Amino acid sequence: MTQDKQSAGIDNRNDPFGEMPLPQHCFAAFVATSVALIFAISAHNGYRLTQAFEQESAVVNGKVIRFQQGQNGNLSPVVAYSFQGQSYEHPVPSKDGRYNMEALRAGSFHVRLLKSDPEVALVSNWEQPPVYWPWATIAGAAGLVSSCLLLSLIRRVVQRFM
């Protein structure tokens, strides 16, 4: 019996979380797990969006055909593009014009469209694909901390009941 207590004492010294009060230990494990899940969900959504960009969309060139009054009263270009023999028009939101000045001067834009519904389009020359690796890195680090806390908590609870 004394040998079991001594080995349990040795285990507690190797466990940096063992000195924490049990309620604080439980709360820390809950918070770390929640943070890991939040970032893992964000990373997964970013990855799926990247896959959708690659598989379900196409990029075509469009030409400015006219200008119309935008949401804030400024003139916004309307871009015409064609996909699989069909012609489409899509307005560029007023707020996007300032980032596309070179495209406005040249009169052409890149149009990313949904293959299944080519009327759904993103007209811009400053597109950036979704970035998910920072969220995955944070999720991995938080997951490691969460795993350590949970394993320590499980060891602590098992030792208490033995």
UniProtKB/TrEMBL annotation:
Keywords: Membrane, Transmembrane, Transmembrane helix. The chain crosses the membrane at residues 26-47, 132-154. The keyword Membrane applies. This is DUF3592 domain-containing protein. It comes from Paraburkholderia fungorum. The lineage of its organism: Bacteria, Pseudomonadati, Pseudomonadota, Betaproteobacteria, Burkholderiales.
